[in-house]
Structures are given as structure tokens and as C-alpha cells.
Amino acid sequence: MSHNSNSLQIGLLPIETIRFCMRCGHSLELRQESERLRPVCPRCGWVYYFAPQVAAAAILTRGEDEKILLVQRGEDPGRGLWGLPGGFVELGETVPDALVREILEETGYEIQLGALLDVWSFFNDVKKLAGVALIYETRVMGGTLQIASDSIAAEWVSVERALQFPLAFETHREALMRWKNQWSKK
What we know:
Elements: E1 9-10, E2 13-14, E3 29-33, E4 36-40, E5 53-62, E6 65-73, E7 82-83, E8 86-88, H1 95-107, E9 109-124, E10 129-143, E11 151-157, H2 159-162, H3 170-184
């Protein structure tokens, strides 16, 4: 597979950088497969499918008020911008388990998982990856706020104030607006 400046990008790398079969180790070829150009193994027939990442995020509230927690990102994409706490689902995890783990890692809080607010598709132009974000309502059940390495600050704010913050992801803004509209009807 040759590399050129007009190469197709999938994920962080040009498609041509996927060079060897994960099943048998043979060199891959780019072929039309299922109506898309994909790396395919001519020896064993294995096809490299580029699957979207799955992320989970939380509209995290606490018992004494209806403020929500925003975290300021310490890493790209969106370094210095704000967002809902959460992260990517790891292999072998369920989405709820991943969210519980991510919230504990990022904030130090143990949470009670509430309702699934909605599911959003996203494309991250900086990292060149596509994904699906599931955003849940959650509530703090224990722990103390501890900022993790991938965040540089956290702040409890009203949803109205959160919508004024420079948010890293449009999906988080949409989720906050949807949650605000649903919460105001309760």
C-alpha cells in the first residue's frame, strides 16, 4: 500500500497505515468491500472495519441543589474548554460500567446512574474519529471532588450558567439544553 498526500484518513492515521492482517499477519490490500474502500487480507479474507468509538457522559447533579458538574479539559480535543464528565467505553465494559468508572476517575465521585437522556452521533475533527455518545442523568452518591489528570478544573453550576461556558463538544450543549427542557417540565 503506497502513501500519498491525498490518502483517505480513517481515525488518526491514513488508511494505508493499516498494513498487516490482525488474524494471520499477511500484508493487507485496499479493496472495495461492502461499498467502501477497506484493508482486506488476500490470504485469509479478514476485513478491517473501522468502527465508531463509544463514549458515555453524565449530567451529574448532587443532592443539595440542582447544580451540575462541568469539568475543564486538560487534553485535546478541547483543551481548556469545558464539558460533561465522561469518557470512552473500554473493551469488556458495558456503557453504564464505563460511565461509573470514568466519573470516579475524573471526579472522585461515586454515582447513581439515572435515565439515559439520549444518544448522539459525533465526528471529532481534531482526532479524526467518529463515535456515538450516550449521555445519562446521574447523581453523586459519595466521594469528594478530586480533579484527575485529564481535567484541570471542575465547577458546580446551574444549567443556565453551564450553557454560557465555552463547551468543547456540541453534543454536550445539546444534552444540557434537552435536560434543561425536560427538568423544567417536572
